[in-house]
Specification:
Blueprint: H1 10-17, H2 52-66, E1 71-75, H3 87-91, E2 97-102, E3 105-111, E4 120-123, E5 126-127, E6 151-157, E7 172-177, E8 187-197, E9 213-224, E10 230-249, E11 254-259, E12 279-280, E13 288-292, E14 294-318, E15 321-344, E16 350-354, E17 359-360, E18 362-367, E19 374-399, E20 404-419, E21 426-436, E22 439-442, E23 449-452, E24 463-489, E25 493-515, E26 533-536, E27 555-558, H4 561-572, E28 586-605, E29 611-630, E30 633-638, E31 644-648, E32 652-674, E33 677-688, H5 692-695, E34 699-701, E35 704-705, E36 710-714, E37 722-736, E38 739-761, H6 773-783, H7 787-797, E39 804-809, E40 815-820, E41 830-853, E42 859-869, E43 891-899, E44 903-912, E45 915-918, E46 928-930, E47 933-943, E48 948-955, E49 961-965, E50 972-977, E51 981-989
Parallel strand pairs: 4-7, 12-16, 13-17, 36-41
Antiparallel strand pairs: 1-6, 2-3, 4-5, 6-7, 8-9, 8-51, 9-10, 10-14, 10-50, 11-13, 14-15, 15-19, 16-18, 18-22, 19-20, 19-21, 20-24, 21-24, 22-23, 24-25, 25-28, 26-27, 28-29, 29-32, 30-31, 30-40, 31-35, 32-33, 33-37, 34-36, 37-38, 38-41, 39-40, 41-42, 42-43, 43-44, 44-47, 45-46, 46-49, 47-48, ...
Length: 990
């Protein structure tokens, strides 16, 4: 048996890469069929039109079967109709791919246990910039910015290839759009949808959008000249969505961890001391435990407007030359409003009951407040952001000779995120009623229950306390040139070669305007009672077990952010403090210039069992320059019992550099055991570049310190990328035209991970009043370690001492003012987060895939399961900084379809097991575990005519909720309720 020649395979490969629509598409630079030795795709390739769910699955099967290495993909069902409304939701149905959801929608991907920052996303073979204010310094691509209507195919490369740009350790994802010259003629379609998001219904009036039903429009138009010399393609879409989510959280994390025999601020009383009798099942001396710092209920409404468009011009003056000029644009605008209610613990006298050790968690934690004058905090937020992505690219493909093909590609792409509101990119107005008595948090069920005694909103009306106005900015830029060629050699071999340059720039900037007047920025009488709107909490969390607890503190007040901001701005006489700054406190700018060269030799082997090999090597050299605007800290001020904000002076820029180079080999081998059965083996080395915050120059201190010191961060531009040695084995059985079963085994050996750790430092030699002469005098006079008592003592006994300023008296009769650290006071210590190449890890796993069509019945299923394992997991019993792989989880998908000439139905269930999402919470080095989550989606389409289709879709049909916990399940961090989303639409093809 002789292995088929490359040119004999071309038609089947075109099926794999073509859009399943009337406008097929191909990848400009990384189509998998190219690696087999076939021609660089041109308009002369025979095209095969495919339609429907079943053909989409069949095309995806062929893509997998005909590629070098392990490649999976999803092909559009029809023109303007990708299988999911969100690309991340589509990707999660591929084995080994899991998604992170934000606002109930897929945003980032984890592949084979490798987190979002180490997965490369390409658009038509081009590296895309990233920009996300929710992750100001990350490299992960935000798929929620891209609409799916103009996408013809997604390709997921799980093994490395020499010609693929570096950066994807987990996978490289190529997003492919339509090209008009792929099929002669004129084709178009338009679509309209009504999107009904039920999560908007379950919100307070002050944050709720006026309607839960919003429109979506899309259209695609493609035309070519009759002779095929030129083509024009245009696509556009616009979507509005009004949504909401309600969240119970311990947002500032859990204080600790402590050992059972420790006696520090925040610990529970030791045996024999006052209050110890109020502890049930106390943690044993060797046990680890933590206590909550706060408990918050927030209700958030979000409005989203997403606009996408692409213009493609193609010209083929002669058969041997095809040029393409394209421009892609996307804009994603978000307006967010939030109201919340919370209680903060000050770690005074308490009662508590605990789970058994060795890692104990409080089932019920009560703090006694006999004076009944602590704050019931109720906050509000109103901000907006805008992200724009722009990409201009040019591609030329030339058949120089019969055996030599050349391709040139250039693009400039930008991604920019910034504030889209006069109130900044994020903000909070804190209000409070100073009438809180004994406060209890019950963590015994899924929903943490807050109970408060003595609330009196009449005797202690609400007033604005603290405020924070932030402005964030991020911009990513990519300028890339690629030149590649393919030389056919011998009978069934070819040499692929290429060179390229890419310059990546990232800028992230941030400013904070904060007023720390948490005891009251103005008087309660400044606020008309009509500003506050009474509401109850329970109904917003009705899907969570425990929300019906009768002990729940069920009353709070919402307010209109803009109205209250106007009042406090005028009443305080400090309007500038209630708007964001016009300048940035921090400004980090990083540039990476990379040059690359690759060679790859592909050949078919005429052996008893046909074999194919692809052996390649890629060399890449990168220079890094990072410049940062560093705020210079000048003082620490005690403004409340537990808040010590840092004062900053004029900032300055500093610059640091780094460089690295890598030689990255890759080997792919496959063999046909028989016509329907194949085995594969691959080895490749890949790199994943550090996050931008890890390589940013300069040391940045956080604005708010505490009694025990402050925090900050600094980057390291000399960090090396994470390097992974990847091994893959696969067995694939294509037992039917549209059916297959496969088992893939993979192993990754990773080194040079930048472990996040903390160092103790004393930057700027800042003096803190903690431990100073006045502090020690107050402590010895009977205050002990109680910072509120110490603060009152200093104000009453030393009101004119250096650094002490008394400004008045609060509603409880306590003096207000500031205490500034003086030269004779101790120097403050800061825990500085930094990075270095110290960590290694390995992971391995198995992927099981089944796709089966039940003859001509119209029924079919697609199912997969991924098992991922690594010994480098978080040790919950260990205290301090740790390195562990985040995102590591098992996952499974089950998709059932039915299709005939009138109906197409798809029910898709996606499940992801528990995974570690972070090794730090708001309190320090503590784990964040996302609990197992499963979601059912449904899609039903009906062909009214061959040109008109109506479609119904349901997302999160069973109204699932999500939960994140700390070292134990009782240590709730974030418990979130959203709601189902329904869409009804129609699509017409011309």
């Amino acid at each position: 048996m002789h292995y088929p020649k490359a040119n004999q395979k071309l038609m089947s490969l075109a099926v794999a890469s073509a859009c399943a629509a009337l406008i097929p598409a191909y990848a400009q630079t990384t189509a998998p069929e190219d690696s087999r030795g076939g021609d660089i795709p041109t308009t002369s390739i025979q095209q095969v039109t495919v339609t429907g769910l079943r053909q989409s699955l069949a095309s995806s099967l062929n893509l997998k079967r005909q590629s070098d290495g392990i490649v999976d993909g999803i092909v559009a069902e029809d023109i303007g109709k990708f299988p999911d409304t969100n690309l991340a939701e589509s990707l999660q149905r591929i084995s080994g791919v899991s998604i992170d959801r934000v606002n109930g929608e897929g945003q980032k991907i984890t592949v084979r246990g490798v987190g979002p920052d180490f997965n490369m996303v390409l658009l038509n073979g081009r590296q895309m910039p990233t920009s996300n204010l929710g992750d100001l310094n990350g490299r992960s691509f935000d798929f929620s910015n891209l609409a799916s209507e103009a996408i013809s195919q997604l390709q997921v490369y799980k093994t490395s290839r020499a010609e693929t740009p570096t950066g994807g350790i987990g996978a490289t994802v190529n997003v492919i759009t339509a090209r008009p010259l792929d099929k002669l003629g004129t084709y178009s379609s338009i679509g309209i949808k009504a999107v009904h998001d039920t999560s908007n219904n379950n919100l307070p009036g002050d944050v709720k959008a006026s309607t839960s039903t919003t429109p979506e429009f899309s259209g695609i138009y493609s035309t070519t000249s009759k002779d095929g010399h030129w083509g024009l393609g245009v696509s556009a879409s616009y979507q509005e969505r009004n949504l909401g989510f309600n969240q119970a959280s311990v947002g500032n994390g859990w204080k600790g961890p402590f050992r059972g025999d420790e006696n520090n601020w925040g610990t529970i009383p030791q045996p024999g001391t006052a209050g110890s009798e109020n502890i049930t099942n106390r943690p044993k001396p060797g046990d680890i435990y933590q206590v909550p710092q706060n408990l918050n209920y927030s209700m958030t409404g979000v409005k989203r407007q997403r606009t996408n468009g692409q213009l493609t011009l193609q010209w083929q003056p002669v058969k041997e030359l095809t040029t393409t000029l394209d421009y892609t644009y996307s804009e994603n605008k978000l307006q967010t409003k939030r109201n919340d209610v919370s209680a903060w613990f000050n770690f005074g006298a308490s009662a508590s009951s605990w789970t058994n050790g060795p890692i104990a968690a409080p089932l019920v934690y009560t703090e006694f407040i006999p004076a009944g004058n602590s704050d019931i905090a109720m906050g509000g937020a109103d901000f907006a952001t805008k992200t724009q992505n722009k990409s201009l690219g040019f591609n030329a493909q030339w058949r120089a000779t019969k055996d030599l093909k050349l391709e040139f590609d250039a693009h400039r792409s930008t991604a920019e995120s910034k504030a889209d509101s006069p109130f900044g990119s994020s903000n909070t107005l804190g209000t409070a009623s100073f009438s809180r008595g004994d406060t209890t948090a019950d963590f015994s069920q899924e929903f943490p229950v807050l109970s408060i005694k003595g609330a009196d909103f009449t005797g202690a009306p609400q007033q604005v306390t603290g405020s924070v106005f932030q402005n964030g900015y991020m911009k990513g830029e990519v300028d890339q040139l690629q030149f590649k060629g393919r030389l056919r050699m011998l009978e069934a071999s070819n040499l692929n070669f290429g060179i390229g340059t890419v310059e990546v720039k990232n800028r992230s900037a941030f400013s904070t305007q904060q007023r720390d007047a948490w005891t009251g920025a103005t008087k309660p009488s400044d606020y008309p009672s009509s500003l506050w709107h009474a509401d109850t909490i329970r109904q917003y969390f009705d899907q969570l077990a425990g929300s019906q607890n009768p002990n729940l503190f069920n009353t709070f007040y919402t307010f209109n952010f803009a109205q209250v901001r106007d009042v406090v701005s005028k009443a305080s006489g400090l309007p500038a403090l209630y708007l964001p700054k016009n300048t940035y406190d921090t400004d980090q700018r990083t540039g990476e210039k990379s040059k690359s060269l690759y060679l790859q030799f592909n050949t078919d082997w005429d052996t008893a069992l046909p074999m194919h090999t692809a052996i390649g090597v890629r060399y890449e050299k990168t220079d890094v320059v990072s410049t940062a605007l560093v705020p210079a800290a000048t003082a620490i001020t005690m403004v409340s019992a537990n808040e010590f904000p840092v004062t900053f002076g004029a900032p300055t820029f500093t610059t640091l550099t780094g460089k690295y180079h890598h030689l990255l080999p890759s080997v792919d081998w496959d063999m046909d055991l028989r016509d329907d059965m194949k085995v594969r083996a691959s080895y490749g080395e890949t790199i994943g570049r550090p996050r931008y915050d890890q390589i940013a120059g300069g040391q940045i201190l956080n604005t708010l310190a505490r009694v025990d010191g402050g925090t900050g961060s600094q980057g390291n531009p000399a960090l090396k990328p994470v390097k992974s040695k990847n091994f893959d084995l696969s067995w694939e059985w294509y037992y039917g035209k549209d059916s297959f079963f496969s088992v893939n085994a993979f192993y990754k050996d990773l080194e040079n991970y930048a472990g996040q750790s903390k160092i103790d430092a004393t930057p700027f030699n800042l003096h803190t009043p903690v431990g100073g002469a006045l502090w020690n005098e107050a402590s010895a006079a009977g205050c002990g370690t109680d910072p509120a008592c110490i603060r009152n003592y200093i104000f009453k006994n030393h009101p004119t001492a250096p650094g002490v300023t008394v400004t008045g008296v609060d509603s409880s009769g306590n003096p207000t003012g500031n205490i500034v650290g003086q030269p004779g006071d101790p120097v403050a210590h800061f825990q500085i987060t930094t990075f270095s190449n110290q960590k290694k890890a390995s992971l391995n796993g198995l992927e099981f895939n089944l796709q089966h069509m039940f003859g001509n019945t119209g029924f079919g299923i697609s199912a997969n399961y991924t098992y991922v394992h690594s010994g480098l997991r978080y040790d919950n019993g260990s205290v301090g900084e740790q390195f562990a792989l985040v995102g590591l989880s098992n996952s499974a998908n089950l998709v059932g379809i039915y299709e005939n000439d009138k109906w197409n139905v798809r029910a898709a269930y996606n499940w992801r097991g528990e995974f570690l999402s972070s090794t730090f919470d708001g309190a320090g080095p503590n784990p964040n575990y996302v609990e197992p989550y499963g979601q059912l989606d449904l899609s039903v389409g009906y062909n009214v005519t061959p040109k008109l289709v109506v479609q119904f879709e349901a997302i999160n049909l069973t109204n699932e909720t999500s939960r994140v916990h700390g070292r134990t399940t009782q240590q709730a961090l974030y418990v979130t309720q959203t709601g189902p989303r329904y869409m009804l639409g129609a699509r017409y093809k011309f």
